[in-house]
């Protein structure tokens, strides 16, 4: 059964046993953060202002790359690389009479090298980042869904299988639904 996010304005499939991070720590109002109870896997949905710089206003790929690079910056990544894009046809998805047009989802998969918990850079972990993007130009909004999964420990060299992370990501973005466009503060069309 899909989880209700932002008071039911958005829904998507998230495993039932995933912990809502807002029960443990403060989470910005623009984010919904869930963590696997038995691993370092996290899933984040975020409502953001529509990205327009560097050609992103007219390109799903450039907007997706902008958000990936923004995550790398926020994670203080030592390096980052996109390995795969999946872009939909350019046709927008009308949502019905009186509702804004939805672009996407566009998805990517990449890795970031991240040093956490004050570890030296030589012990930085490789983190698999999966990112989906929906754009709502009429409301000046981007919505991202990301899954983060450390696939290689920098300290031990231990490799971790990404099958479960990919499954969680695929189920979440494929079931993603905007139920109430009133969530988005931009100008209505």
From TrEMBL:
<keyword id="KW-0813">Transport</keyword>
<dbReference type="InterPro" id="IPR016123">
    <property type="entry name" value="Mog1/PsbP_a/b/a-sand"/>
</dbReference>
<dbReference type="InterPro" id="IPR007681">
    <property type="entry name" value="Mog1"/>
</dbReference>
<dbReference type="Pfam" id="PF04603">
    <property type="entry name" value="Mog1"/>
</dbReference>
<dbReference type="GO" id="GO:0005085">
    <property type="term" value="F:guanyl-nucleotide exchange factor activity"/>
</dbReference>
<protein>
    <recommendedName>
        <fullName>Mog1p/PsbP-like protein</fullName>
    </recommendedName>
</protein>
<comment type="similarity">
    <text>Belongs to the MOG1 family.</text>
</comment>
<keyword id="KW-0653">Protein transport</keyword>
<dbReference type="GO" id="GO:0005634">
    <property type="term" value="C:nucleus"/>
</dbReference>
<dbReference type="GO" id="GO:0006606">
    <property type="term" value="P:protein import into nucleus"/>
</dbReference>
<dbReference type="GO" id="GO:0031267">
    <property type="term" value="F:small GTPase binding"/>
</dbReference>
């Amino acid at each position: 059964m899909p989880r209700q996010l932002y008071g039911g304005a958005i829904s998507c499939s998230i495993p039932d046993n995933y912990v809502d991070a807002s029960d443990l720590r403060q989470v910005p109002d623009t984010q919904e953060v869930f963590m696997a109870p038995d691993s370092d896997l996290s899933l984040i949905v975020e409502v953001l202002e529509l990205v327009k710089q560097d050609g992103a206003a007219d390109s799903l790929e450039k907007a997706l790359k902008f958000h990936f690079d923004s995550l790398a910056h926020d994670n203080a990544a030592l390096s980052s690389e996109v390995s795969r894009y999946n872009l939909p046809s350019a046709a927008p998805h009308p949502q019905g009479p009186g509702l804004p047009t939805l672009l996407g989802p566009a998805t990517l998969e990449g890795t970031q090298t991240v040093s956490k918990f004050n570890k030296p850079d030589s012990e930085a972990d490789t983190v698999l980042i999966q990112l989906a993007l929906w754009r709502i130009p009429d409301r000046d909004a981007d919505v991202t869904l990301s899954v983060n999964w450390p696939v290689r420990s920098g300290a031990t060299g231990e490799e971790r299988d990404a099958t479960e992370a990919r499954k969680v990501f695929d189920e979440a973005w494929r079931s993603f639904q905007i139920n109430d466009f009133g969530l988005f503060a931009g100008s209505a069309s």
